[in-house]
Amino acid sequence: MSIFFYGCITLDGYLADKNHGLDWLCQTGTTEETGYADFYRGMDITLMGKRTFLALAQMGDPATVYPTTQNIVFTHTALDQEGFTAVSGDPVDFVKGLEQDKNIWVVGGNTVLAPLLEQDMVEHIILQVAPVLLGAGVPLFSQAEGLKRFRLEDVRRYGAFAELVYSKP
Amino acid sequence: MSIFFYGCITLDGYLADKNHGLDWLCQTGTTEETGYADFYRGMDITLMGKRTFLALAQMGDPATVYPTTQNIVFTHTALDQEGFTAVSGDPVDFVKGLEQDKNIWVVGGNTVLAPLLEQDMVEHIILQVAPVLLGAGVPLFSQAEGLKRFRLEDVRRYGAFAELVYSKP
Q1: Contacts of A72-81 spanning 24+ positions with Cβ under 8 A
Q2: Predicted complex ipTM exceeds 0.95
Q3: Which end of chain B, N or C, is less packed with Cβ atoms under 10 Å?
Q4: pLDDT tens digit string along A90-140?
Q5: Interface of chain B against chain A, CB under 8 Å?
């Protein structure tokens, strides 16, 4: 089982603005230049919170965005969206319950990422840092206090974005 | 007048741990490899908060750390340290009151940086990102809400650190 976080944050560490909007991030650069297509091709499952799903749904048909993965939304309410499955449990329990070895992409948000970080289950962190300060918003990192070391694998530049690639040591 | 922030942060955006300790950061990599010597040579004035000064003083003689700059500590109490001047006013007012064009390095902490960011007075942000999560501590960015765009000038790697270089557009 390999768990990846891959996504954009601002220089001040926000995943999204206070209204959970993501538009400003995608406007800053072009995804065509990045390694996203290769990354996505390697993934089997996506995990996301309800608010990430809703932000995605606002931008178009979610099924066309993540067409080849099994897509899990952690929510206590039902979901009427082809290609997406509502799961009411905990991300840690869900991952531990998977029987086969899978590549899992944590799309967002921090309520999904935090428990997985706390359990040292996140193997790869790939961040595109947008050249923007927001001063408020939804932070990527909200895990409990605790020193966790990673290994810097690579530093790249895609236009206005700096991409930082980390793995568990 | 050019104002620079130059310094280490964790992957989750902390300048220091909850006790304002900085040791863990410097242990991660070697400063010899970086552009620090060239950077410091170009600076005329350093600005820092009282807690940054105290953390510095704990690590040795502050005068030997910043020997060629004029060093300003924002504090309401007196300071008995050669080479360092206590200033009880506001960082913004202090900088605006300088008569000559100077290169100013904001060493830390966030209470000094935040008002300068809010006034769009910070021209250069140079971050060394340590491959570490803390989960709690003193955040670098604590400025008020507001979208601020920077231009990514360079992305470098120094050992375990990723260095991101930004300027005002």
Answers
A1: A72/A45, A72/A46, A72/A47, A72/A48, A73/A48, A73/A49, A74/A47, A74/A48, A74/A49, A74/A50, A74/A111, A74/A112, A75/A49, A75/A50, A77/A50, A79/A53, A81/A53, A81/A57
A2: no
A3: C
A4: 999 999 999 889 999 999 889 999 999 999 999 999 999 999 999 999 999
A5: 11-13, 18, 24, 117, 125, 127, 129, 131-136, 140-141, 143-152, 155-157, 160-162, 164, 166
The residue among B138, B145, B97 whose CA lies nearest residue B118 is: B145
A124 chain-B contacts, CB cut-off 8 A: none
**Cα distance between residue B138 and residue B114, in whole Å:** 13
> Tell me, what amino acid is at A123?
E
pLDDT in tens, A7-47: 989 999 998 887 766 655 655 455 556 788 899 999 999 99
Cross-chain Cβ contact A11/B150 below 8 Å: yes
**The two three-digit tokens of residue A37, written as one number:** 């297509």
pLDDT tens sequence across B77-120:
999 899 999 999 999 999 999 988 999 999 988 999 999 999 99
pLDDT in tens, B38-49: 999 999 999 999
| Cis preceding-peptide flag for B83 (omega within 30 of 0) | no
How confident is the model at residue A159, as a pLDDT?
87
Asked if B17 and B24 touch (Cβ cutoff 8 Å), the reply is: yes
Preferred mutation among A110, A128, A152 to probe B, highest tally of B CBs within 10 A: A152
Chain B residue numbers touching A125 (CB-CB < 8 A): 11
- Residue B13 with chain A: CB contacts under 8 Å: 12-13, 141
Q: Cβ separation of B155 and A135 shorter than 8 Å?
A: no
